[in-house]
Amino acid sequence: MKHRTLLKIAIATAAMLGAGSALGAQWDSNTNKMNPVMGEAVAYNRSDCTAPGAQGYMVFQDKPGITYSYVGSAFNDKASCITLGTRTRVRIYQHKDFKGKTKDIDNASYDSIKQVELGGWWNDTMSSIKVWKK
């Protein structure tokens, strides 16, 4: 019985390590950025999409049962830049509960992260967000 349990743990661990997207966004201390994977977006409170001291960012994921109808008081109306993992789409909303003006951002790339400065009217305006894998 003990052998079967250890085998199950080994198989589960190997599956997680083999599927890079299962690990989620990873911090890069050289660039002061999170590197989102497919189905993830990272919003930053700085226009250059960096988070010195690993503060000032929030990760959003396309996962069953998870919604971002409100980004929370700590991040409401503070997003100035957003990065999208490969094959990811987001819709940002002006107000909580997915209301108000919207803006769609797509990353169709299979190879690279997309970075978008939320300039002009959209700077510091996002209150809710939806994230999809493409």
Describe this structure as you would to a colleague.
- The protein is mainly β and 134 residues long.
- Helices cover 13% and strands 35% of the residues.
- It has a single domain, classed as Crystallins (Gamma-B Crystallin, domain 1).
- It is built from one helix and nine strands, in the order αβββββββββ.
- Strands 4-3-5-8 form a four-stranded antiparallel β-sheet, with no helix packed on it.
- The chain is globular and about 35 Å long.
- The chain starts with a helix and ends with a strand.
- About 13% of the residues have low confidence.
Task: Describe the secondary-structure layout.
Elements: H1 2-18, E1 26-28, E2 33-35, E3 40-44, E4 57-61, E5 81-84, E6 88-95, E7 99-107, E8 114-117, E9 128-133
Antiparallel strand pairs: 1-2, 3-4, 3-5, 5-8, 6-7, 6-9
Give the structure's gist in a few sentences:
The chain is about 15% helix and about 35% strand. It has one helix and nine strands, in the order H-E-E-E-E-E-E-E-E-E. The protein has a four-stranded antiparallel β-sheet with strand order 4-3-5-8, with no helix packed on it.
